[in-house]
Specification:
Chain lengths: ~350, ~270, ~300
């Protein structure tokens, strides 16, 4: 009797030891943004089980991580938030011994202003924010921010705007000819007034609306290019437009959290997504471009040459990367944003 | 009493009542019906198929969150029932005593305070504890759910306790039974339907709680409601309908048992 | 006569859990409402009344001397109260005949009807909200039916409106009105109603002067059970309101997210609690007043 008990205990201990040897990885990422295929490949290669928890916005992610006690290993914020995570000591430097393939990153994304030398982050996906329009309802020019800021009658009351502050503020600031971090109060005032005037034309301020567009809940709005592609692939009448006055280019980057419980697993994961075939899997899922050399080769047919990924020649210059603005400017943006939201 | 004048009818009330029942069930029925739809549509019927059920049952995420929800509900409701039973015994049929009002207020507080307020209060409080102790397990969720379930269990048990005749326990005392014996052989068995009802009520309430869970959860601790909340704003294929129908069936089962128990014992 | 100590002892475990996981943390909310917002969320331990100020007023971003009523907050507050009152009213309107119907069924089938009214209540809130969403969408059941029968040409914008939130809340809370009303009617002495008819009262007079006063405690209980959750509602306006039709619950959650103002969120929560407590007091007083004279 005692012997069986002993064996049982040993077996139990043994099994838990085995489980922790392979381990677990807790990913904290944007919703609907992680390819299950890629995760399966990772687990198959390393034996590490991955859990994914969603967030809707950079703000939510930051608030959660700052709170502490979250239990996550990896977070994937946008470029404008990466410096905040770094400055506040929320993330740790990449381990050169494990993350060996940083040379796989495309040259233009290797030494970026938000993380010089890629000490902390690895590219996840990058994209643009523009407007999406149901061309069956509106047949005018779609490459303009007027769609959401000065809405044509056919689209009034039928728009959704993603409630992502940096995207909305950027579009509005560029619309009024300002630089991303302009301190010109005249421009900022106009931005505030335009946004408040435009809001009544918006039906909703919601995320995760691919199905809503397809289901006909909206006829247009502000949206990310990859999500817009997912809409178009299910409902052909939707087209993606690049506002000629200026549109944001952004990149989401994976980083290891400073208090990550599974640090080594996290580093292995980051090296894993630096491989072109895995980056391609990530792209295929959410329909955005990745930042890895050779990363387009594994991408689905339907993505090559897609209008959401290939920017028209004359509109390339209008794309602007985000910047981290000084605190006073941020405060004004935040004040305008909260006023808009409420 | 010749005329057919029925005191119990009021004009039009029957019609409105039936209409209300219909209105209550139509959305649910449509939901269930379209869970069997062969194609991905919520409005156009394409034929009968079980594909969404297969997908839902095969969906690892769904399985994981469902099991977690059921486990959490069972543990929280169980704990809550035990605690509530003790509290009910201490406060029912015992005459007034100092502090009674405060106890009632504390016990009923989760019912009166909106979930969002409790949710954010716990968000802050639990964050402090997480930083101080580094513990990120399910303990917080269990504690939060248990607290939320206690008033429901308490009301059920108390209601049952109040209908019990104290003469029975007096009789037991007259027969030289000790208070513990009286409790074990007289009170407890009679109390069982109330306890079971309290447990079931707590179970269903815990399964249903979304706001508090949303604010208290840590990594990898999604429950079915929080998962559904995330999904509701994204993919709404009939797979959601299938999951909803399965849980509806579960609720149905619980309610049926609940009714059978309270009906046969009550009266 | 035993002391009261044993009663406290029995209650202690339950009370401990409740204080730790429900009531205690509320005190934190009170404290936080008097602090300053931290950078990008959290709090800074700087006492200030600014959060409470911002609940009702706002300063212009570019001209801080200009102070106006915070129209947005007041709109959300008003919408919450008004929608909750409307919800209570609709639930009462539909709930009263339903409760009456169930209470007047023969005892054999009454349990079945009770069973039928309870099932939706015990169905997951999200499932019920999802079901309502699918009915109200532009491609949803109602619009499809109306379009197919030619009653309308274009889909009606039902979802993401105050109407959608109202429908959602009424749908979710209806059983909570029916059950207390039924309980009150179940205990009602029908002989009093009979007496009214014997005195040649018309059906409406009997309803107004006899039945309604007799079941008024049920009305009060049902109204509380509907109004309080309704005004603190979060999920239903979130899903059916599309992020623009906010109620107080959503406004509070916003402060802990993109609003980046935890003290304001805490102050708004306190406001919500105050409203709920006020409603409770009003209702309970009304209940006491009714029960008083009838004891005579």
């Amino acid at each position: 009797m005692k012997k069986t008990l002993g064996y049982a205990v040993a077996a139990l201990l043994g099994s838990t030891a085995f489980a922790s040897a392979q381990g677990v990885l807790n990913l904290y990422n944007w919703g609907n943004y992680t390819s299950p295929e890629m995760l399966a490949a990772f687990t198959a290669e390393t034996g590490i089980e991955v859990t994914v928890t969603d967030y809707d916005s950079n703000d939510t992610a930051l608030a959660r991580i700052r709170q502490g006690g979250h239990g996550f290993d990896i977070v994937v914020p946008s470029d404008t938030y990466v410096p905040i995570f770094i400055q506040e000591g929320l993330v740790q430097e990449l381990d050169d011994a494990i993350v060996t393939d940083r040379a796989n990153i495309l040259p233009q994304f290797l030494d970026v202003p938000f993380d010089p030398g890629r000490e902390y982050s690895v590219p996840w996906q990058w994209g643009t924010t523009g407007v999406i329009v149901n061309t069956a309802v509106y047949s005018g020019d779609i490459n303009t921010a007027d769609i959401v800021l000065n809405t044509p009658p056919e689209l009034q009351g039928r728009l959704n705007v993603i409630p992502e502050m940096s995207d909305v503020m950027a579009i509005a600031i560029y619309y009024h000819g300002g630089e991303r971090c302009t301190t010109d109060t005249a421009i900022l005032r106009q931005v505030r007034d335009t946004l408040m005037a435009a809001k009544p034309n918006w039906l909703a301020l919601d995320y995760g609306t691919v199905d809503a567009y397809v289901a006909g809940d909206f006829d247009g709005g502000l949206y990310w290019n990859g999500a817009a592609m997912r809409v178009r692939l299910q409902a052909e009448q939707f087209a993606y437009g690049y506002p000629a006055t200026g549109y944001p280019i952004w990149m989401d980057n994976a980083m290891v959290l400073a208090d990550a419980p599974n640090r080594d697993n996290a580093m292995r994961f980051l090296n894993f997504i630096l491989q072109p075939e895995n980056a391609a899997m990530i792209s295929n899922f959410a329909r955005y471009a990745n930042g890895i050399i050779g990363g387009e080769e594994g991408m689905d047919e339907v993505m090559r040459g897609a209008p959401e990924l290939v920017i028209p020649e004359n509109l390339v210059a209008a794309g602007r990367w985000g910047q981290v603005c000084p605190q006073e400017v941020n405060d004004i943006h935040a004040a305008i944003w909260t006023e808009l939201l409420q | 009493m010749a005329k057919g004048f029925n005191v119990r009818t009021l004009p039009g009330f029957g019609g409105v009542a039936i209409l209300t029942f219909v209105l209550l069930y139509v959305p649910i029925v449509i939901l269930v019906v379209f869970s069997f739809n062969a194609e991905n549509s919520q409005t156009v019927w394409h034929g009968f198929s079980l594909r969404w059920y297969e997908a839902a049952l095969a969906n690892e995420q769904v399985r994981e969150v469902s099991i977690r929800s059921l486990w959490l509900a069972a543990v929280s409701a169980g704990l809550a029932t035990v605690l509530a039973t003790l509290a009910a015994l201490g406060t029912t049929r015992v005459g007034r005593f100092p502090g009674q009002t405060m106890i009632y207020a504390l016990i009923n507080q989760p019912l009166m305070v909106p979930e969002i307020v409790t949710g954010i209060a716990l968000l802050i409080f639990v964050a402090w504890i997480k930083i101080a102790t580094g513990y990120t397990g399910m303990g917080y969720m269990v504690a939060a759910h248990t607290a939320f379930c206690i008033p429901f269990a308490y009301l059920s048990i108390r209601a049952r306790l109040e209908t019990m005749d104290p003469a029975l326990e007096s009789a037991a005392a007259d027969l030289y039974a000790s208070p513990v014996q009286a409790f074990r052989y007289i009170t407890l068995p009679l109390l069982v339907p109330g306890i079971v009802a309290g447990f079931m009520l707590g179970f269903v309430v815990s399964l249903d709680t979304v706001v508090i869970t949303e604010f208290v959860k840590s990594a990898g601790q999604e429950t079915l409601p929080t998962w559904m909340l995330g999904q509701l704003r994204r993919t709404t294929t009939p797979e959601m309908n299938a999951i909803a129908t399965l849980f509806l069936a579960l609720s149905l089962l619980i309610v049926t048992v609940f009714f059978l128990i309270t009906r046969t014992r009550g009266r | 006569m035993q002391g009261h100590g044993w009663k406290w002892l029995l209650c202690a475990p339950a009370l401990t859990v409740l204080v730790l996981a429900a009531s205690g943390p509320l005190l934190i909310v009170v404290v936080y409402s008097f602090l300053s917002p931290g950078n990008l969320g959290g709090v800074a331990w700087d006492p200030t009344l600014d959060a409470w100020f911002r609940v009702f007023f706002k300063r212009d971003i570019f001209e801080p001397e200009v102070v106006t009523w915070n129209a947005d907050h007041l709109t959300v507050l008003w919408r919450s109260i008004w929608l909750s009152l409307q919800t209570t009213f609709i639930c009462a309107l539909l709930g009263f005949p339903t409760a009456w119907f169930i209470a007047t069924r023969p005892p054999s089938s009454r349990t079945l009807w009770l069973f039928l009214i309870t099932i939706p209540f015990w169905t997951n809130l999200l499932i019920r909200t999802f079901a309502v969403q699918e009915m109200l969408r532009n491609n949803g059941t109602i619009n499809t039916l109306l379009l197919m029968t030619g009653i309308i040409d274009e889909p009606l914008q039902l979802i993401f409106t105050d109407f959608a939130v109202l429908v959602g809340m009424a749908y979710v809370f209806l059983p909570l009105m029916v059950l207390p009303l039924y309980a009150a009617m179940d205990k009602m002495d029908f002989r009093l109603v009979e007496a009214a008819y014997d005195l040649y009262a018309s059906r409406w007079k009997a309803l107004w002067h006899v039945i309604l006063p007799l079941v008024r405690p049920g009305f009060v209980a049902g109204s509380i059970l509907v109004f309080i959750p309704a005004i603190g509602s979060f999920v239903t306006p979130r899903v059916l309101g599309g992020g623009r039709t906010m109620m107080l619950g959503n406004l509070i959650a916003l402060q802990f997210g993109q609003g980046r103002n935890w003290p304001l969120g805490a102050a708004l929560s306190m406001l919500l609690l105050i409203i709920v407590t006020a409603a409770l007091v009003i209702y309970l007083r009304a209940l006491n007043r009714m029960e008083g004279p009838r004891r005579g």
